[in-house]
Write a structure and sequence with these properties.
Length: about 120
């Protein structure tokens, strides 16, 4: 599946952004969908994932602030980010995997990636 992420931008600390990830050619209803991020000089980090059954998982650093959702009818994945902090600054990527992996937080488990969208939080 081909993915395209957008919605990033510059926001002040405490503000909100909503990222979107649109799938082309195939419907996301067949995929476990997730978000990762990568800050300069750092490894790609797990942010959140929503399973085919609707279960949601979050990285510890974003729990209580970020919300993942999916709308299968329009093949779109969302990430609502509230109370943003400077340390949330990164390029955010959406990813997809058909089968569930117990190592869901590991980037290498995903074969499909969006191109990334930059989120910058000013303090």
């Amino acid at each position: 599946v081909q993915l395209q992420a957008f919605g990033g931008g510059l926001v002040q600390a405490g503000g909100s952004l909503r990222l979107s990830c649109v799938a082309s050619a195939r419907r996301i209803s067949n995929y476990n969908m997730g978000w990762f991020r990568q800050a300069p000089g750092k490894e790609r980090e797990f942010v959140s994932i929503i399973r085919l059954n609707g279960a949601k998982y979050y990285g510890n650093s974003v729990k209580g602030r970020f919300t993942i959702s999916r709308y299968n009818n329009n093949s779109t994945l969302y990430l609502q980010m509230n109370n943003l902090k400077a340390e949330d600054t990164a390029v955010y990527y959406c990813a997809a995997r058909m089968t569930w992996s117990v190592a869901y937080w590991t980037p290498s488990q995903y074969g499909s990636w969006g191109q990334g969208t930059q989120v910058t939080v000013s303090s």
